[in-house]
């Protein structure tokens, strides 16, 4: 049993006590699941102990995120472990206690003013509206990636205390909070980043969603294969019909492609490489797989899968949401192509062999 | 997800990156010298024995085979890098492709010592080419229904009668590995009674007739056997074990980069066009195609790594071929939707030429080496459905 298998078993045990539910404005996230994970030290995995985390490897954090995604856990773990935490550490900013959720958002429309021009982590004030903040209203802190103050170039990474910021009820297709936060002269600790550093954080965000997509896609395939074996029509299981077998095989191809690419991108991140193109590719590929896998999963499940009574929607609605979050498929395919062509029109192939 | 579909990630291989750089340098020099022109689908259509010989001289054929048979004892990951570079450049690799990819490995597994010593070093040198003799006029996807038969004569030799089709480049090849019935068909055991014969294509009684594909190219043939006497010691493997041996070849046949790079030269031309125009829709299309290609590389690399571990991952190989050939066919549609170009084989515009070549080769991608319907049946078995 590998270390990751142990982590996965622990998360599965906890998930077993918290069934997924339909998220509503009244019940926007699974606070009980979060507490159980935090009590077990799982909300600090992959973040170093000296910074207040639980230690462990990136692979452990990814295993936790995958397991929670497959179980439709309504908690900001992917944001905290794979994006906000590592981004704060890379920027030499202090990590809030991992026991309280920290989320992440790209704040393109926020204006940032420096308060302190001294060396090291500075203080900034932020004003403007941040759209699509994952888990706004649930997360205690939000790490924002905003444009740098005028004349400074690059970007600012700021740690904002979100506990007193009003959040609206906006949510994604799965009901996960994706609210707008309005900042009015909010003071925050922050650090200046180069445009390249900011790009790597955006890539991390996309890769985190890709990891979630890969895990959810695998689970949807497994559910669908299982259902096709259990559901009988015309006197035989659905899975005995060749038409259904063709659909399940097509799903398996998509899922395998996403897993292979996402795993490779994660390994590349683990080796400390620049993952902008790898993450872009993983996100685009996962998004493309969602179209096929969610469509065919619903087709095979029939009408029951189209109801909130059946569990399928917990993942298919998330798949349809996640594929356009953290940068849409259009945005990342453009980044990918432009990056691959950056070395010149005749260097596309060498760029492809280096990208992941 | 069923374990039979999942493979461990491929490790990094410095040796593979080293040989990749050498191949890239070689190809740049050959292109500069004008010894070949880039085309689509060159592992079917690019026959150039002189080019194959050059690859042999550089140690890029029979790369993974034992040294005692002329091989180079390098890893499947290194071979992957070499084949991938050749395909991406659209280099003429068809002459040796089948021999290097699957006939040689088949001989290594099932061949007699004499067969190996006589033939393998010649494949490694790029001087001996093979065809696959599986499909017949009445047996396509249902391979077990073949009727070509071989019977022993009084001297212990095999007398072969029947016909094989889609034998790529038989008119340029030296040997065929031919699947024959050596016992009458048994309805209760469809896969029994078949054997593989190693057939010298210059034997009397063999006629090779061209079958032209859509662009007029002569790659396919019908190979007819009329009382062809094949020496008794040219049985490959065991009599009656033919079905098993054919199945074992397929992990090699179905998992390599030729299952998703047949139309890469079109992507390369498209990339040049996008770099020139900077058009947003074209950039996005190139990004989508690139993401699919990058995923396929990782899938195929996992299989190369599994081969290095001594595994024969037939089901993941079927998956690569299904996803990969669907991709190489889709390239045509993705590109033509975002460029204002009319495909033409004679056009001075290389993008129009590549589009035309890819379009006219496209139907073959999802047929050859097992149709995608057959492959999905294999995948369904891996999912536990049949």
Tally the structural domains of chain A: 2
Note the beta-strand portion of chain A. Answer: 15-25%
What is the SS-derived class of chain A?
A: alpha+beta
Count of DSSP H/I helices of chain A: 10
Oligomer: heterodimer
Give me the Rg of chain B, rounded. 21 Å
As a percent range, the share of strand residues of chain B is: 5-15%
Observed structural traits:
heterodimer, A: 356 residues, alpha+beta, Butyryl-CoA Dehydrogenase, subunit A, domain 3, 6-stranded mixed sheet, B: 386 residues, Butyryl-CoA Dehydrogenase, subunit A, domain 2, 4-stranded mixed sheet, 12 helices, 47% helix
Produce the secondary structure layout.
The complex is a heterodimer of chains A (356) and B (386).
Chain A: H1 3-15, H2 31-39, H3 58-70, H4 77-90, E1 102-106, E2 111-114, E3 122-134, E4 141-147, E5 155-161, E6 178-193, H5 195-230, E7 232-233, E8 236-237, H6 242-270, H7 276-301, H8 312-322, H9 329-340, H10 348-355
Parallel strand pairs in A: 1-4
Antiparallel strand pairs in A: 2-3, 3-6, 4-5, 5-6, 7-8
Chain B: H1 14-33, H2 42-45, H3 49-57, H4 76-88, H5 94-110, H6 113-124, E1 130-133, E2 149-152, E3 158-165, E4 175-181, E5 194-200, E6 206-212, E7 218-230, E8 235-236, H7 242-254, H8 264-277, H9 280-308, H10 314-338, H11 350-365, H12 372-382
Parallel strand pairs in B: 1-4
Antiparallel strand pairs in B: 2-3, 3-7, 4-5, 5-8, 6-7
Would you mind describing this structure in some detail?
- The complex is a heterodimer of chains A (356) and B (386).
- With 356 residues, chain A is of the alpha+beta class.
- Chain A is built from ten helices and eight strands.
- Chain B is α+β, with helices and mostly antiparallel strands and 386 residues long.
- Chain B has helices at residues 14-33, 42-45, 49-57, 76-88, 94-110, 113-124, 242-254, 264-277, 280-308, 314-338, 350-365, 372-382, and strands spanning 130-133, 149-152, 158-165, 175-181, 194-200, 206-212, 218-230, 235-236.
- Chain B has a four-stranded mixed sheet with strand order 1-4-5-8. A four-stranded antiparallel sheet of chain B has the order 2-3-7-6, with no helix packed on it.
- In chain B, a hairpin with a 5-residue loop joins β6 and β7.
- In chain B, α5 (94-110) packs across α7 and α8 (264-277) packs antiparallel against α11.
